[in-house]
């Protein structure tokens, strides 16, 4: 059950939202409503809904003021808010996202946003759950690390983590290092300090034992002398083991330095007085056994903590994978609202009466930004699909006489902005290619877009269609732009290479031609370019020729040969 609070002053819009949520069978929505901003704030604090649908225009507050009132002292909004706004308020919707709204929907005339409403609410709530789980995992990891550090600091020995190679630089050392007159920071900041503070007579032995442990992976257990800051000689027992990752790769050396100076002194006395001090030997042996038992318990607890740390790390990695998957799917879902936005903007541009100058300016900005973003998303997704081999194209008859007008409709607004004249082949030239209709349109649109963007002002673009052989159909796009040098032609189909146009005024990504080339080759065709500096360029591509499909009544459409007559 999903509890939704709708803050909307328009009764018709409230009824439309209520109907859309009630009819949805995938989720169970419980809807409460508020007609003003203040009423909505009271309901939000009292009911604690799962999601708030917020109209920007309210009689007492606007959407941004509502968000500000809902924001806590920590700067966060506990309840996910989704802004509902008109097509001319996209900038405000983006500002609302910056101020804490989780998403927004544009109220289009066709009310298509109502169809998206249930799924968008579910996606917003899923994102909230993922973020909450990630935060909880991070908190648990922090608590586990604090518990581990507290336990290590209580061990009556110097706990450390060191590199496996070289001078075995310490990566961590507990506060017990103060026994040698040093702080932990001094021990960590000097990679040579372990070697420098090792007694000269023990250095080679200690280095050899550490190297042997790192090479073989066997536990380290050796005794050597360390020099304190004031020159005092102390004996230590070094017990450590190599820590490995899940693949068995050695990571670092983890161990403890136990001060055995007193034990060494006792051993010397025992060698001198062993016959007279047998009782003392037994006592000391018992004490050492107790110390070893405590150490074993501490090691067991440390291993348990390590297991908890590994689990916390795994949980965090799973949360990160979920986040990455969410972002990947978001890039796909961005295309639907962008298409709606662009279609609505084009309808408004051609509406009667025509839009005002201010409206036309805003529509132009919306169209330009929308096309650029949609083109960028599509190109990136296509390139990824092509490189991974996941993109599948159809091989069916495609009538170029039908494709050309569709491409013309899509490219003419861009051409009119720069006063570019585009000529297309006659509409009765019925030539068929074998390929994927959608991808053929995409290829031609990309070539036309480049011809317009990189053309000179008031230039021309000529589109030609011809059968170069019975098996091949060629489509060419000729412009009057600056042309390309041989050096630039050699770099033309390289990823993200804009041929020195990165700082220019023409927007681009440097992957459009790369995607175009791979799509053409995937359909069994080829692409080429002929260019003269100062005169312009001709981009052409060829695809396999095909026969027109037979009509249901058994009558064939005009053949390619008939079209050329």
Walk me through the structure.
The chain is of the alpha/beta class. The chain has 3 domains: 2-132, Rossmann fold; 155-259, Beta-Lactamase (2-Layer Sandwich); 392-564, Heat Shock Protein 90 (2-Layer Sandwich). Helix content is 50%, strand content 20%. It has 17 helices and 17 strands. The protein has helices at residues 11-23, 37-47, 63-70, 90-98, 113-154, 184-189, 193-197, 203-216, 261-273, 278-333, 335-349, 357-388, 400-417, 437-453, 486-490, 512-522, 560-564, and strands at 2-7, 29-34, 51-55, 81-86, 103-107, 158-162, 170-173, 220-227, 233-244, 250-259, 396-399, 421-423, 432-435, 460-469, 472-479, 526-532, 536-544. A hairpin with a 3-residue loop joins strand 16 (526-532) and strand 17 (536-544). The relative contact order is 0.06.
